[in-house]
Amino acid sequence: MSNAPNQQPLETSPLRLRDLPGSQQKQAIAQGKLRLATGPFIIRLHSNIPAFQTAFARLYQDVALATEDGYTDFNISVHRPRNLRRWIRPQVIFDFDGHHPFLPLPLNQALPVFEWGFNWCIANHAHQYLQFHAAGLAKDNVMVLMPAPPGSGKSTLTAALMHQDWQLLSDEIVLLRPDTLEAVPLTRPINLKNNSISLLKECFPDTYISDSCTDTAKGMVALMAPSLQSLKKQRLYHRPTHIIFPKYAADTALKVETLSAAAAGIELMRNSFNYHMLGESGFDTLVSVLRGCQCLSVSYSRFEDAFRFFETLEA
Amino acid sequence: MTTRIASSPLYTCETDHFAIAAFSDSLLVYDRRNGDTHQLAQIDAYLFETLCDAISPLPVKSLEARLAEDLSSDYHPLIKQWVHDALNRLQDVFLVECAESTAT
User: Is this complex scored with an ipTM above 0.85?
Assistant: First the structure.
């Protein structure tokens, strides 16, 4: 079976968010009329928070606008609740189709609240896919599925590889189609945490990284814009060729170990949002993916070592 | 319980209750009754055959005899331990089912 990426038809408007004048971008968000095509999903966004409108428009400027009519998968609103906190320590609340799945958080966390809430929408509703909490990257005919627990440096490595011409499929959720085993790109901002923020700002000064939010549940967080190249390739679906568990280990040489398919499968299962919900078809998809992949664990301390290793991967 | 030819090319073998996928280095077992997935690691061809035999509908004594035979074979202690663990993991279930099958 060929590992060549599969080009999907374009179903979005040729316009990107940046093609609207700045005032129209904010107006569309303020009026709840902005419809964006993020990966396979159409979202409609509403927000009455000016700072969020500005930051969102900057971060999503290269994302395609959805055509004017058509189905909206997720109606999302990020707004200030009308409670007494409006005046003292203002808050932000995430709203999905009129429901509030989370408690309000401090207003300065509006951007990560949107990202976390959008992830929640996908994880709880998109069961046509087998979903993994993992990063996905592709180059030529190679596609790497990279699950890892928090603190392993997954997002940092993903961001760095994106700057080495790897197509970012996703930083948080990899969506696999059970029928074709293809990963459907969900190219969105990369969630950076703590020390990685300053490190990546220094390494890639030309890439937009949002202001940092401190004191969140995950520590200090900031969001890095996806590369334009990755967004342009968003209709290219890839079948995974490698499952790699990365681990940052300071002051160590690159170390690569082969994992048994079953061990990798169990870890993938643990990193899936909906494996148990899909029942035996989830097992079938998992086994099929494992049969087509090489499974490795990789620990590294220097980007250069990791870059060289990733370049050696072959389909 | 019956072992049957796998209904899917993904499976190496399956029973009413289990779907088993063998890889070159390991094995994944899907428990259809509760949706759990388990791995059995460090498997080789002979051991895999043993395992498949073990989950076929043998009378209780045959299964026990087969297990004893494997453990007395000339394998490295770690491999013997693996056989013991692997079969034991499945044995409780299969023994009950085989016993029920024999009784009826």
Answer: no
